[in-house]
Amino acid sequence: MLAETRAALVDFMERSGKSQRQISRETGLSTSVISQFLNGCYAGDNEEVAKSINQYLTIGKERLNTVSKTPFYPELYNTREVLFTCLYAHQHNDITLVSGDAGAGKTTALRYYAETNTGVIFITANACTTSATAVLGLICQQLGRQVPGRKAALMNTLVEQLAGTNRLIIIDEADHLSLDALQAVRNLNDLAGVGIVLSGNDKIYRQMKAGRRSYEFDQLRTRIVIRKKIYNDYKIEEMDAMFPGLSESCIGYLLKLAHGESLRTAKKLYNVAAEFAAAQGSALTVKHLRDTHRQLLGEVCA
């Protein structure tokens, strides 16, 4: 059994391209334990290590067999709107805003811009990083700088590091940020002259336009000339490009789902349904989509 587990792990590492360090991180076993186990010289409980590795390989092999995801489509209207806001902020060292429906491709487009352009810092806010100190700390971490504890020291460090660099900072899920955090981001734009893209759901836009404290957002709102809103609204041609090779009926089904739920939901359902179809050795059909929809969400599109 131990020899079989060692052989299975080596085969998995070759097929997946994962290193012993990556396997260590994913299994919770130390790199030394994995190395010694593979070399047959581990002095501890080999049976327990083999059990952990076999459990890991069960799901790891399933991931290797998943169907490739839908291709990125840069000509999608939502994507072009997001890329424009990034380009403008980057070129003009200005602040721009992207808001709108969840699952409409904001994050995918933002990451595409970050990956295809130099000088871009990408951070994602969350419920634990709402304050000015927290968001400035995230930016510091992305720069590989030591993170000072005080807000003023953080700002000074970032201004010293970023001034004159013409870099772009993309803040995804920016709707989590407090007013104080957003003001700190505005200050960073003023002092360092870097471009900033704020992206999130409609909450951030509503706060600026009609919230109870909307007047407090005036300094930020009046600086943002580019404010793009995107929706889960798509054309047949766009769906054809994102889901190539599918029948008209399948495209129609996914289009209804993207409109009713989100593009993200449509893509996830497609990927799972495509795996089921591939396992059956057949082309994807509306029945696969309907069965998967019912299994995942407990309902189907009309």
How many β-strand runs? 5
The string of secondary-structure elements, in order, is: HHHHHEHEHHEHEHHEHHHH
Determine the fraction of residues in helical runs and give it as a percent range. Answer: 55-70%
The largest sheet is: 5 strands, parallel
Cα distance, first to last residue? 51 Å
Strand order of the largest sheet: 2-3-4-1-5
Number of helices: 15
The first-level CATH class of the largest domain is given as Alpha Beta
Give the key terms.
single chain, 434 Repressor (Amino-terminal Domain), Rossmann fold, 5-stranded parallel β-sheet, 15 helices, flat
Can you put this structure into words, describing what you see?
This protein has 302 residues and is an alpha/beta fold. The chain has 3 domains: 2-64, Orthogonal Bundle (434 Repressor (Amino-terminal Domain)), CATH 1.10.260; 77-230, Rossmann fold (3-Layer(aba) Sandwich), CATH 3.40.50; 236-297, no CATH class. Helix content is 59%, strand content 9%. It is built from 15 helices and 5 strands. A 5-stranded parallel beta sheet has the order 2-3-4-1-5, sandwiched between helices. Strand 3, helix 9 (179-192) and strand 4 (195-200) form a beta-alpha-beta unit. Helix 7 runs parallel beside helix 8. The longest helix is centred in the N-terminal third of the chain and has 19 residues, at 46-64. It is flat and about 65 Å long.
Give a short synopsis of this structure.
With 302 residues, the protein is α/β, with parallel strands linked by helices. The protein is built from 15 helices and five strands.
